[in-house]
## 1
Amino acid sequence: MTVLLLLAGGGFGAGVFGSLLGLGGGILIVPLLTFGFGLDFRAAVGVSLVCVIVTSSAAAGVYLERHLANLRLGMLLEVFTASGALIGGLIAFLLPDRVLAGLFALLLVYTAATMLRRATSAGDASPSIEDPDDAAGAAQAPGPFRAALAGPGYRPVRLGAGIGGSVFAGVVSALLGVGGGIVKVPLMHLVMRVPLKVATATSNLMIGVTASASAIVYLLRDGINPLVAGPTAVGVFAGAMVGSRVAQRIDVRLLRLLFVAVLALTAVQMTLRALG
Amino acid sequence: MTAPVTASGAMSAGTAASRSARVDRSIARILRAGTLVSIGLLAVGVALLAIAGGSPLERTLPGLDPARIPADILALRPEGFLWLGLLATLATPLLRVAAAVVGFLGAGERRMAGLGVAVLIVITLAVVVAQRTAA
């Protein structure tokens, strides 16, 4: 009973913080389950993928109703994120735990650096999406298919790079049990010139399908324990609901800095685990 | 330079936007319902697990066997609800894709529907490959 409550409580905490800080739960759940509950890395990734799907499905519905997510762009890219996730799901069962822990440590460092930059930067230095002299945009004629991917005030460019990056995002998601937003959002925003809010919402929409492709591999290879996944997912869902309601009333700048420290510490522990 | 907008062109753009909004709304409803059903099933499973007592980390379960789920649910065994909740969780995004395919076909957007079918083919491939490599 105590362990059950701790799993649900840990999931709740991951859901609250993930929601407040704009992170998927995976980056928190995998260390929680490996260090807190002694699960092996792959088992933690399997549970994390389930949690990521739950939070993505819940949030994606809201984003679609508010017309923030670009369904057409999402559907194009998720063909490739799902393919990457299938490949990653198969590779995950070939790699030793220590290698996966090492890769996760790298992801933690990258996430911490990204959050630190966001916490200390004054504004958004992203390129203008309306720039008429944008060479990449001008070079690509807006055919009917490309036009269908456009949204109000923007037209995605560099589809080839977007597709390649999506395969990579899918592999990362499947190997490490994260949604892959840390790859997809910068890819869509900085490379494909999609507005940040649309990129975030579209990435969220894609996470469900991406994580499902790899979660199926984990499930059919007995890589998901429902007794652990159940309480953790329920906790994450409840936490994400609470987090999204209080997010407007909380100044997350200090929280973000504290969290960077936690991520850095976790990266050190993961590195030690990787080194055996 | 902006192209002149004709009345029929504006109407057609308006219709396309309204169709698109309809597809978005129906998909949002599917995602919401799927999430509620998944979380509901998982929550019932967790409650039954709490009543049964013991640590979930110490119990071992056999792998997924869909044929056992109905019997487990009728017997109010937690694993039945948890497995079904997990399957509902994984199925929700796929239902979203299937609904988008239907919506795009209805709107005459065959290329977009084709993308949805491609996603479903990748997922089917994941099932087949996982089953073959699991043995």
## 2
Amino acid sequence: MRFLALLKKEFRECLPWLLIAAIAFLVLGGLALRLMIQSGSTFSYPYRLPPGSAISTFRLTVHSPLITTGVWLFFISIVLGLALGIRQFFLPHFSRTWGFTIHRSINKLTILCAKLFVAAIAFIISLGIVWMVIYWYASLPEILPFPPEPRLFMEGWILIAMGFTVYLGTALAGLNKARWYTTKVFPLAFVLVIIVTTVSQWKLSTAFAVMLIGSLILLSQIIHTFLNREF
Amino acid sequence: MKLKRISKYIATPAGTFTTLLTFLFVLVFLQFFVTEIVIVSLYKTRTEQFSGPDEPKSKRHRSAKNFLPDGTIHLVYVPDEYRYADEVYRKEQIFDANHNLLWQGLHKDNPYKYLSWPGWSHGFTANSMKETRMITPEFSQALEIPFYSQQRKIEQIWRYAPDMDIFVGYRFKAGIIGYAGSTGFTKLKDKARPFGRFENFYAWCPTDSFSPTLLWQTNRCIYQINFEKQRVDLLSQDHKDPIGRIRTHMWGDFTSDQFHISKKYRPIIHINKKYRPIIHYSTKDGKHHLIMREPQQKLSITVPEDWKADSVSFTATQKDIFLRRQGSDTKFSDTSPRFSKQWMDSWRDYCSKPHKRWVELYKVDNQGNLELLNRFDWISPARPVSSTLTPRLQIKGYVTGASPLAYDLAWSSFGDKLYGLAHSGHGISGAYASIIERYRPGNSIFNWILTVGMMGFAFWHGLSRRTCWGKFIFWLVLVGLFNLPGLLTYLALNHTAVIKCSACGRRRGLEKLDCVRCGAKLPLPQRRELDLIFKT
């Protein structure tokens, strides 16, 4: 019951961000896809292939019509990660409510788990479900001339996972007692390295593995810092 | 409590790794910017120290060595002022082997028809495929071959699925229509056999079609895929060993090999029908394989073992097959790590001497035997290494002073692998390898002095703050291996305040209850008179 109460509290605090992200992605991502469909750029190839000519092979590689939607997904995912991290781990420090949160008859780990669980759920609800809806819509036979690759669906989830990694980095930065101009921002720098490493992967499994290892490194530090820090 | 301990054992190394990695990247950024800023400020116009362009030796070296079908060699020299000129307006001078001027004028009026050879075209390689599949915010790209109707409308696309090594066909707004694999086109996914590991492909539109045909090279086979006629032809045999990069000449059914050249040139560079379409590749056993059309013919040629595969090229006319081999009598060989000081010194030494070079033309008979038709030797004059390399190397000596010694250790252990990675364009692993290659200290004295200095500082700093000898030695080793980033990591994670020990009077940290020097306990606060609790 106490855990549920904590979940409710965390969920209530994260709800505005969750809703803003969901609506923003639905509107911007959906609009980007509609514009691509209406402009016809999903159908007309940007080149001509005259008979009897060699073809520059790089011109045969094409982006999906979901290209702009992907950019919005990435951007909103990162912003949501920052917003949730700041809301859950920076704001109690500024508003001096850590003491109130921590000194309850419940152990610290449960409090931390509630925060992380709600953040993960927030990503799944606000971005994951909307992404599923947009991808499903794009896959309908009457919408696009040729359906998007199934792989893109998983790539979308990787972009969402990147946002969650940013959230973990922000959380660790928030818990770190160092000064902001010293090692406090290092978790965010580390997240940047993870993101750069992930976007350079071409195998989905490797990209997921990089994200997972990076997240575990951050998570272990978050748990340790949260359990040992004097609030 | 248990979780607290477990988390400590995982979180402490994780924290060290995170901090160290971040400092390493910060250092790389600083090194990059400092190097580039200094290079830009020191930039001097490159001074060419070639012998004058009018000297016959230099002309001979800089001339293109072209063969006529009868084996005669001509040296085609383009004066400097026309070197980058438009082909239509380019002036040329043609000399014979004894450097007698035979002809001069505009390129288009050249009366001689030389043998043309396949060029190195990189095509779309396995690395290009990986680059297009990178998981960027814009999502990965797909390789899609459009199939146009006669009305120039896209009816189908054939999308390559790298995970299955087959093509999947989609009809316009009608979903999947079939699959294309090594055994041909099929409607059932189960029947489609993978092509094999992708290596390279070329594409062209045949003269009677708006849709591309592909020459598809895997690690062991070469296929020709025609999506319009739904045909997959295996051109080569299925080799057991990986095959080398293929070179083609007049293979595609098109008027020009050079898609980037505008139409006005095409009549000029158009190569007449005297050539047979040819594909050339080599295998590990040193054999060269030719696949020719008009008429169909396959030929395997064994060349002497010391012939390097990339020094040999083939062309086939309607009458004969020719082999051209180019080379030099001296080879640059230095076993020291690439771009190290020793390596650069040997390279400069190699460049500063003239070298004997040659080109040979052979006729190949239908059994693959070679007959030497002509050979031309010349001396390539000494040339300076680019002057921009010298300041870069000089700066590198200072900039890499703070680089980790670990880079050098990695380079000396896996140098060849790292060099291969750094120059293969393999995404992030290639980028990390090139960081090590570019910023490794290269056993410089400056780096050693800095490393020892930083270890000394860490020793001085850590001696009074140590909690156990194991940790202390670990941090010293880390500082020694990672230089400045190692020292900063050490300070970020270990710096604590020190006090003067009440017993021995020397500095001691507050992390341990006993003084690390004399073993005295931390002083307890003394009872004071105003302590009402103890007084009563």
## 3
Amino acid sequence: MNPVAGGAFALATVGKVVLFFTVLMLAVMLATIFERKVCGFMQDRSGPNRVGPWGLLQVIADGIKNLLKEETMPEQAVRPFFLLAPVLAILPATILFAVIPFASPLPTPWGLVEMIVADVPIGFLYVLAIGSIGVYGVAMGGWASGSKYSLLGGLRGSAQMVSYEVALALSLVPLILLTGDVRAPEIVSMQQTFTAGPATYATWFVFPLLVGLFFFFVSGLAETNRLPFDLPEAEAELITGYHTEYSAMKFSMFMIGEFAHVITVAALVTVFFLGGWDIPFWQGDNIRVLSDGTVIGEPTWWKTLLTLGAFGLKTSLLVLVFVWIRWTLPRFRYDQLMDLGWKFMLEAVTVYILVIAFVILGIEAVGIPAGGWYAFVLFLVNLALAGALFFAMDRGTLIRGGAKGARSAGGDAAQGQGG
Amino acid sequence: MVRVAPLDGKAASHPSVRALRERFSEGARRVESDALGYPVVWIDPRINGEALRFLREAPDQAYDLLADLMGAHAGIGAPIQVWYQLWSMAHGRQLRIACEVPMHDLELDSVTDLWLAADWLEREVWDMYGVSFRGHPDLRRILMPENYEEGFPLRKDFPLRGRFSRSAQVSRALSRDLIDIYAVDELEMAGYAVTDDGGVRAPPERAAEGGAPGGIRDVSPDEQPEDALEGEPILINMGPQHPATHGVLRLVLQLDGERVVRCSPHIGYLHTGFEKTCEFREWNQCVPYTDRMDYLAPMLYNIGYAGAVEALLDVEITERCRVVRVILGELNRILGHLLWLGTTAIDIGAFSVFLYTFQERERIYNLHEAYTGGRITTSVTRVGGMMADLPVGWTAAARDFAATFPETLDEVERLLSRNAIWQGRTMDIGVLSADRAVSYGVTGPTLRASGVAYDVRKARPYLGYEEYDFDVPVGTAGDVYDRYLVRVEEMRQSVRIIEQALERLPGGPINIDDYRIVLPPKGEAMGSIDTMISHFKLVMEGVRVPAGETWYSIESSKGELGFGIVSDGGTKPVRCRFRGPSFINIASLPELVRGELVADVVAINASLDVVLGEIDR
Amino acid sequence: MKPLDTLPTGAHPGEGRLDTGIPHNWMTTKLDYVINWARRNSLWPMPFGTACCAIEMMASAASKYDIGRFGMERMSFSPRQADLMIVAGRVTYKLAPVLRRVWDQMPQPKWCVSMGACASSGGMFDNYTIVQGIDTIVPVDVYVPGCPPRPEGLIYGLLMIQEKIKGESLADPRARDEAPEAVGRPNLPPETIELVAQPFGNSTNQNRMSGLGPTSALARSRDRRERRLEHRD
């Protein structure tokens, strides 16, 4: 069966866009209620439970209420930018999803439909390019509000997102080194086991690129402004940061944008490191569409559904990790955040790229073909690197409080004085 | 006129009294004794600066802690009294210097150069009594609004409900000119020129608009730095309605980027007039007011107040009452520290810790409720005893709490103490050196975190604290992290004290058997005519406290909690002064946050553990 | 003294009227139902906490009482995103303009809960500094008695707000009237403020001493104002 082409392709794409946007919005709604329930669970509370079954309709109530609430326009706000900012916050997060494959290809009477909205050749470079637009929403919202709290939030947000953009992009370089491709479907295939076609690594990239996953995830946390990197909206200091002055639906759009961003980052981690829609320990779902149109494996509709479920499950687990981190950790301080970004992450990622490059060079010189053993060697290297990394990041060595240095190194401060 | 307990030989032989008499023979004529026994030296108001300088600087005096500086007014026409309550860390001596300032010449020398604590305290005396202090750098109202026009509230000629009608008060409050709300120093920061005589001139570009300081551009062009690349500082207003100010504290911050150049705290948004209102209440009716001052650890205030009045009455409470008060006091120390821990964690971003500590607080609330019926507003003490004896089963519940509470504390410590972000956010932040801390009059865990082992429970034991075995944790660096460690350790020590107290809790009556002070049991009141008369008089008039004055202090969860009380022998206090430790501790904030980041302001403010009810009173 | 039933009902002219005079039809009632359902189930509180009551408000949000069950756990510290102002604690005259401003910054529809005796009436502080009931400053929808009210009490008050929202209608143009010119003015007429602030209960032994001479504070403050005016000219 050949991939769909021509008019059927156009129709299928439109269908996918519509379906996809709906699913994403639904997922955002579920993510908000999921976050509230999970945080309730972590804090020994019940969370929303009055509206609908298990409080599931809570989000709908919030949505309708915000839709009908008075929109405020602060006197000192710069009107066009004030209105544009929420749009810019929500837009990149949603269109990022276009390049994410979320299930195995679906066979239809008109041909094989790949479950990705746009399989662009530039792949995740598109992700990086669009992702960096998100900063405009934050910066613009903060500046245009005409409030100093918003301004500080916006400034923090733009600095933070620009800084971590670098680490985010660099943390994907080892992935290119390994796969030689930037297309997301290709990256998913590389993590599956195939007997025919180009060689693959037969394992999820979480193993050969463990440290890369860590960098990508941390940068992703920072990109989405989630704790411990939620400085632009640090509640204790800046009320709600750049969206302090926004009310009603405009505020909701910021929130939707944030959650869509979280889901996007979780989906990207899934695709890049957790095998995408691949179901582990089962070879039946190994379906690959080569660039010349040949299809390896047997696509069926139920496999599409199953893999969709696998993708959803992996993504939700990652969202759970996001929520879990948020309700556990304290928040960084602004300068610590910048230090971490520029003085540590950037260098560490660069070193990591070099190490991986040399190891790959070495492996290929030794002559191990791409596959399980190739990945295993890389995994061992990554384990060693991870050990070194966590040793370096241990308390006291990376994040420092003030510069006054009143505290001598080590030693517990509080000591009993004889009673 | 207020009479004072006669001077005994002990007070006269106090080394400071002798030295003062030798040095200022005429100026320090009158020496009396406080109800607690330490000497009170009445000095001539004209030499107050000189005498206090001597006491602060002479090496054999070295009164380095200005515990309190308060005013008192005995009645219309009487002179205003100003008390300086001193404590010497080195010699462990207590002394009170007092002066009577005549109404026609309300002026004293400022002692702000001797003790930093005097800054706010003198402002408060000015605000409440209109005594001005020569040489004070910034003498203006502190608790009342800057443009308060009704007078000096604590003078006896000031009516309890103010001079204006209620509607006038409301409409004046709402129609205040924004410039009146801003203080002089903020206007200065915002580029307004403040002339020597107190006038205010708007910056040129704003004068045309007639606007108030509020826009993003705040510094007038002529004040801008030469180098345009340095940019201009911005002024942000944090509070009074802000999630991280723990109430209605208002901080005006001048920022260079995110770094604080200048911080000016504004208080008084919760000034409730406790001290004035208590002058219109009977001695026991004041108890409910005390728990509304520190609503984080209410019983400590109840206990301290009752102790102060009992010192004036010179009665000895029963042993059972003493132990019960120790248990309740330590429970409330835990209660206060737990709220501190939770809210500080929120401020640094760890929200869940707040809910974990609140679960433990709920358990203490249950104990409160079982005993007093109230969760926060306990009003548990009465002069001469408690409101009632402990209910059946209460001690078992308290024992259970003491046994299980440390587990939660361990959990919270696991979340925070070795957390890299927590350490990074708290270590080396807001460092307060021991000298500065003492000079600021800072007390409690904040002082101990700076390495000074001053705890009233050890320095001047009350309620038999000398019989308990407990440690006073002391920090070394004096930063936010040390304050955190010290408070966590204090909670553990409090558990130790509670366990010991529950162990030794004796039987017997909880109240003294003097029916002129405590209500007799109903059966007895109905049975004998004497008791019935006492009952009637207590209910209709209240306790009569002999004329005298005292300044009594206990260790509350925030620091040294002082009660300066004057009685004229009636059923109501003439003066009821509460020395809230938070009021004095928060005065050190501008120094602590200078040069730090905005996020640190929040952490440092939280680490001082302030409660606005006590700051503003 | 005027009898209490002559008191005006509040700032909203339409408030307290059951019959709005507008015919109801199926469309408006169903729409009202949906909108009111959403509004009452998504009340984001703006915690205006000042004193003891604020601690009980925190307790209401904590694990044991958890107002998050009603969708109210999202405490909105920015008034722009809040629907419900909970004034918890005593409000002083110094704080009054702040309270008014925060209320004015909240977008419609908005409701106000006065939590505790002090916020509702001044409570036990009938003195020179405490506002005798915040309804002299902002319109109040529900008063929660108690000193402080228990969390159950606050939750009951919040449920009453939900009940109140159930009865509202979009079709009533007077339901959410707001007078922009009233910003910075008391919420009640002066005579009403005097009336509600009359001494009562234990405070009857206090009286207003008037006609006393000016103090130097008066002089100082007045001087400053006059001088400032000069500079402005």
